[in-house]
Amino acid sequence: MHVPDGFINAPTSAVTGVVAAGAIAVSLRGARRELDERTAPLAGLVAAFIFAVQMLNFPVAAGTSGHLLGGALAAILVGPCTGVLCVSVVLLMQGILFADGGLTALGVNITDMAIVTTVVAYALFRGLVKVLPRTRRSVTVASFVAALVSVPAAALAFTLLYWIGGTTDVAIGKVATAMIGVHVLIGIGEAVITALTVGAVVAVRPDLVYGARGLRQRLRLRVNGELVDANGSAPSPAPAPAAARSHRAVWLTGLVASLVLAGFVSFYASADPDGLEKVASDKGIDKKAEEHASADSPLADYGVKDVADARISGGLAGVIGVGVTVVAGSAVFWAVRRRRSDDASPARTETTV
């Protein structure tokens, strides 16, 4: 659902840019509360994983494909504020390096794909977790429903932005029907990917899942083949070195999975246009679309320039994208985490004195 340049007029794009900047500023402050020594490294990995999975377009209807948006997944794994930052990092890397999503439309894309999906998904997720039995299975079910709803919510948000500042004269009813209809189908794919990913992490390290915190059921993790209590209340908690090894194993597994998905599996992704591209073509809202400012980028369109073999070109581009995203994301979250530590230091010093 990456909106290109020319779909939304300049005033509306500017306003959404201000909204996006404000949301990122708020999210930076909120992420200080969400991130700790366990989840800060995971946040950069979540951004890289979202980048990788977004390369895997899956067919949803005749001639139409969809891909993960990622807001629900990020919010549930690392928190809503951190989730907004994760998706924003991905969109920034895609826009600058891969000419995916207009640069003048960056505010539109962050508002739509990062803010709306994250806020809607996490609000619904928290509501479901409160009424469902507080078990790991409930976390997975709530993840599925939240992700499913977040995608048509983003489609509705785009429709409203188009109604306010669209550059072509197309009936808003036709745009809304087409956008929401196809993105309900895409939402099913989003829900499956989100639930499977959240369920997998909950199964091995539930303490790393932000949305699983506060469950009444004791959360346990497997260390050296044995289940131990994750909240520290068990008589024999896991030794710190063993817990650290478990954390590194999760991180390395996630990174390898991201590299494989982007570097190899992406070659087999659907080549059909995604939901927005299909609707734009069918309804004529792409008449004033503009060429991307980074169209001549060496990595434009997810391929490496001057590499003739399509499989190698796309694979290299995917691997580079995962690497750049995990480095950029990790740098952002390391800085946020360090700022939290710096802010807490005077309080600790004063208490000690």
- Tally of distinct domains: 1
Name the helicity range: 55-70%
CATH class: Mainly Alpha
Q: How does the helix and strand content classify structurally?
A: mainly alpha
Strand order of the largest sheet: 1-2
Which regions contain 5 or more consecutive residues with pLDDT less than 50? Answer: 232-239, 347-353
| Portion in beta strands | under 5%
Q: Which geometry do the CA atoms define?
A: globular
- Please give the number of β-strands: 4
Structure description:
The chain has 353 residues and is mainly alpha-helical. The chain has one domain (10-352): Arp2/3 complex 21 kDa subunit ARPC3, CATH 1.10.1760. It has ten helices and four strands; from the N terminus they run H-H-E-E-H-H-H-H-H-E-E-H-H-H. The chain has helices spanning 10-34, 39-54, 71-78, 80-97, 106-131, 136-165, 172-204, 240-263, 275-283, 310-352; strands spanning 58-61, 64-66, 220-223, 226-229. It has a two-stranded antiparallel ribbon. It has a two-stranded antiparallel ribbon with strand order 3-4. Helix 7 (172-204) packs antiparallel against helix 9 and helix 8 (240-263) packs antiparallel against helix 10 (310-352). The longest helix has 43 residues, at 310-352. The protein is globular and about 60 Å long. It starts with 9 loop residues before the first helix and ends with a helix. Mean pLDDT is 89; it is low at 232-239 and 347-353.
